[in-house]
Specification:
Radius of gyration: 20 Å
Strand order of the largest sheet: 1-24-23-22-21
Mean pLDDT: 87
CATH topology: Methylamine Dehydrogenase, Chain H
Number of helices: 1
Number of domains: 1
Order of helices and strands: HEEEEEEEEEEEEEEEEEEEEEEEEEEEEE
Strand content: over 45%
Structural class: mainly beta
Shape: globular
Amino acid sequence: MPAQPAPHTPSVRLRRGVLAAGLALSAAAGLSAAGLPAATAAPVPTITLSPRSAPASEPIAQPYLVGRTVHDGDVTAVAPARALQLLGEVGDSYAVRVSVDGKERVAKVRPGRAAIYLTGSLSRDDDVTLGRDGSRLTISTYRSVETGTRTTLTVLDTGGSDGRASELGRRTFDGYAQPLDASGDRAIVASSTRRHAATLEWRPAADTVRQLVGRYGYVADLAANRLGVYEDVRTDAPCSRISTLSLASRVLSRSCTWQASSFSPDGSLMAQIPVLSDGPGPLETRVATIAGTPLADYRASKQTVSIGVVRWLEGRRVLLRVASESSAAYVACVRADCGRVSPIFSADQGS
């Protein structure tokens, strides 16, 4: 199964741009707290974790970086240059952002074979997002203009017949545009201009765009048919609501404290973090039903700087990445039953 991206919040640049736009997203959608599923107040297990606190358990393969080498269980693959970021899995290979002679590129790193470059040279300011199924890579390029900012999104197919990437489509959006997920000929994009915020469905091959909802999206999963949006991006802590992608007006839950970071494959569960978490990562992650009922709460110890779900396992079991300033580990949990399933590795590595 492809590695799920780390718990996702908008990048600092994107979030500041969205907040600076000063948009009041309309609350006229007819939503009321009484009409939404109510989260239960029943106690849930609270587990405090550090990279070394959970007992060792049966290993689970999940890729992480050590220097230029990707480790994934018994499999290793070496990047062709200094590795900057492990983006995730692409089939039986790994997408790694690397620095080549001072220029950044994305390489497909393959066990026992030479790496293939998926992109040309990238600016350090370019964002690169791997879709949740690993089949699409989106490059976000930002440009300042007299009227503000423009974002050019380029979608690449990571699995061409020769193993190389091919461009599916390119489009320039006014304002800030953030890809949330991409697969097949669909890309879900959060868009914010000075006048308007929206979540869009862009079909790169045909270059057609339609609005899903007039609110700024922050997380989406095409396979699970789930979308998370902020109700008002003017505030420092906007409320979040979860809906289906196919019908964004169908609200499944709402919270002014928590936002979703990922969804289980069948869409029945979600990982949640505090709204607009800052810093190296969230200090608290919980697993909840899609209606917002909490099932387990995972909190960082005093020495831990981030904790978040990176992958959904069988049943209600989740794989967490737990990191201190110097070390990190993967920990698998189902409610309060947790075990460390990876070696301890450097905190600045891992997916």
